[in-house]
């Protein structure tokens, strides 16, 4: 038996602004995300056992070079939920909000995340043996622009 995911009355919004050039000291631009996922009731999962179900909201800024600032504002909100109903044991359900800034070059001078996952009533799990994970992850990564691979060349 497969998992049944029921949507709900709600909204999802992703807004991007400030991607043009700026007057920051390094002359780079700004990457900026605002990701909002709102629902009145939901997400609702009905599982039959043995399924892996993942619900995600992702805000990601990725730059190889030329960006001075990366900003994320992520919100996942439900009035009731998320709700998981397990008809038999063995399912794994993950509800996740990810805010990620990655600068490959390492030239970024500022990376910020403002992440929230909220529910008025929930999360709610009904039924036997279902593993439910609720996560909010914020990550800033800045490299030095060098290839990190290993191996030998001839």
Question: How does this model look, in words?
Answer:
- The structure is a single chain.
- This protein has 154 residues and is mostly beta strands.
- The protein has one domain.
- It has strands at residues 4-6, 10-16, 29-41, 44-47, 52-63, 67-80, 83-86, 92-103, 110-121, 124-126, 131-142.
- It has a four-stranded mixed β-sheet with strand order 1-4-7-10, with no helix packed on it. The protein has a four-stranded mixed β-sheet with strand order 2-3-6-9, with no helix packed on it. A three-stranded parallel β-sheet has the order 5-8-11, with no helix packed on it.
- The radius of gyration is 19 Å and the shape is elongated.
- The N and C termini lie far apart (53 Å).
- 27% of the residues are buried.
- Residues 1-26 and 147-154 have low confidence and may be disordered.
Task: Give keywords.
154 residues, mainly beta, four-stranded mixed beta sheet
Question: Layout of helices and strands, plus pairs?
Answer:
Elements lengths: L3 E3 L3 E7 L12 E13 L2 E4 L4 E12 L3 E14 L2 E4 L5 E12 L6 E12 L2 E3 L4 E12 L12
Parallel strand pairs: 3-6, 4-7, 5-8, 6-9, 7-10, 8-11
Antiparallel strand pairs: 1-4, 2-3
């Amino acid at each position: 038996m497969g998992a049944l995911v029921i949507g709900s009355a709600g909204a999802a919004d992703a807004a991007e602004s400030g991607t043009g050039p700026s007057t920051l000291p390094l002359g780079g631009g700004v990457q900026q995300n605002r990701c909002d996922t709102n629902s009145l009731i939901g997400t609702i999962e009905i599982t039959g056992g043995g399924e892996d179900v993942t619900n995600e909201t992702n805000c990601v800024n990725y730059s190889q070079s030329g960006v001075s600032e990366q900003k994320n504002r992520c919100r996942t909100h439900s009035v009731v939920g998320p709700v998981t109903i397990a008809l038999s044991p063995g399912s794994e359900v993950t509800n996740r909000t990810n805010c990620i800034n990655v600068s490959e070059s390492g030239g970024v001078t500022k990376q910020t995340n403002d992440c929230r996952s909220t529910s008025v009533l929930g999360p709610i799990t009904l039924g036997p043996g279902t593993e439910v994970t609720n996560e909010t992850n914020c990550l800033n990564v800045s490299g030095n622009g060098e290839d990190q691979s290993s191996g030998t060349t001839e």
